[in-house]
Amino acid sequence: MDDERDSSLIDRAVQRLSPPATPRAAPVLPKIDWRFATALAALIALGPLLTIVGAGLLERSAQAEAGRLRTRAAPQINALAADREARDLLRAAVREAPVAVWLDRAAQALPADARISRMARTADGRFEIDVTAPDPDLLRGAIRRNPAFAGFRETGQRRAGAMILITYRRAA
User: Fold this and answer.
1) Count of CB atoms within 10 A of residue 167's CB?
2) 3 vs 31: CA distance, rounded Å
3) What is the Cα–Cα distance from 54 to 65, expressed in whole angstroms?
4) Measured between alpha carbons, how far is 150 from 170 in angstroms, rounded to an integer?
5) Burial class (CB in 10 A: 0-12, 13-18, 19+), 24
6) Could you tell me if 129 and 167 are in contact, meaning their C-beta atoms sit under 8 angstroms apart?
7) Which CATH architecture fits 99-170?
8) Phi/psi class of residue 95: alpha, beta or left (left: φ > 0; alpha: ψ in -120 to 50)?
């Protein structure tokens, strides 16, 4: 009873109203199935791996299809390229004055003693003119004065008998 005197009135009231104290048992945790946890972790890890493998398969399939399409379309692509090249060549030929017009322009610009020995359009679309004259300086002056021949440059000179043969080439 001495013990009751040492405790306060409130402590005693709480002791009487509370249920009898029984030792509490430790909480029982459910047993973990490690097989399930391992399978779940493996499934999470396999997600990105399967995505990468699937993307690789799709890429190989697309590359193979592109290769088949490329080989099937190669004749058409080559024909279109040849057609485009021919059109460009024709466009350049139509845009440029024909050889007869250049021959007439040269006849008007050249001195009286000069003669055209050759006039041709090269494969790359440039004009070449071979002119023979006894005095090349007089010929050069006449060519420089004519604005139609502003794009022509002298590319060669050699003796041809009593005359001198001068080759002019027009830049493309």
Assistant:
1) 17
2) 45
3) 17
4) 9
5) exposed
6) yes
7) 2-Layer Sandwich (3.30)
8) alpha
Give the single-character DSSP code of 134.
S
> Which tens digit of pLDDT belongs to each residue from 106-123?
888 888 889 888 888 887
Sorted by sequence, the CB contacts under 8 Å of residue 162 that are 6+ apart come out as 134
The radius of gyration computed from the CA coordinates of the chain, to the nearest angstrom, equals: 51
**Cα 1 versus chain centre, distance:** 101
Q: What tokens appear for 65 in the block? A: 């299809």
Summarised one tens digit per residue, pLDDT across range 37-87 is: 899 899 898 989 999 999 999 999 999 999 999 999 999 999 999 999 999
First vs last Cα of the chain: how many Å apart?
128
Q: How would you write 95-126 as a 3-class SS string?
A: HCCCHHHHHHHHHHHCCCCCEEEEEEECCCCC
